[in-house]
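User: Need the bound-state model for zinc ion:
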Amino acid sequence: MTQREWRISELVNQLLTLGVKPGGVLVVHSSFRSVRPVEGGPAGMIAALRTAIGPEGTLVMPSWSGLDDEPFEPATTSATSDLGILADTFWRLEGVVRSDHPFAFAAAGPLAARITSDPLPLPPHCPPSPIGRIHELDGQVILLGVGHDSNTTLHLAELMSKVPYGVPRHCTIVENGSRVRIAYLENDHCCQNFSLADVWLRRNGLQKEGQIGNAHARLVRSRDIVKIAMEQLAHDPLVFLHPAEVACEECDAARQSIGYGRS
Ligand SMILES: [Zn+2]
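Assistant: Bound-state model below.
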């Protein structure tokens, strides 16, 4: 079966109908496979996003490498395939700026430098990081064909709530010409329970949902995500971890990390 190709103008209309704010800051987490086929492919989808926010808007995508043992080079290092083809297409486009560290985001528009210019953030999604700047700037988050398990803003909410877990991780940077391994603790786990945000946001009428191309899309204010997750984390700091009886390796590692490395 051949599916009809979505025209860029149709995608722009869908984005504006969903509630994408012209002139605003918009961070995109995406699975292009669920959106396509699109006129112009991944670059066509990016053009639709840029047209929807307009010249005063700033478009942002995650752009990290996912390579712990390799230094990050903003001009050449690919975005990890986990982030999808839109993310790995976006940073290569003319006029797009990218953070100079392994937890990079890429951005285009008037606020691009403000969002991408912080030094290495540790843990990766703390307030002085791209995702923290988007929260500060009252940006919107769009999930294109992916769920909240891809929503990095929830990691910011965990850090602002001072969750008690942090698993040992490392990254590699270059300092004075030599590779340096930097160890840190990250609020990481399998992220499946981030899907609870659907329930919390829908209950409060804070999440817009609709179709973009062939994908189901969610649109939320960064500040609403953080606020609602922090309320839940205040009741239960471990709400995002699978309970022990599920035997989820990653969530178990997070639970076992509680108290580790902190006194
Ligand atoms: Zn888990």
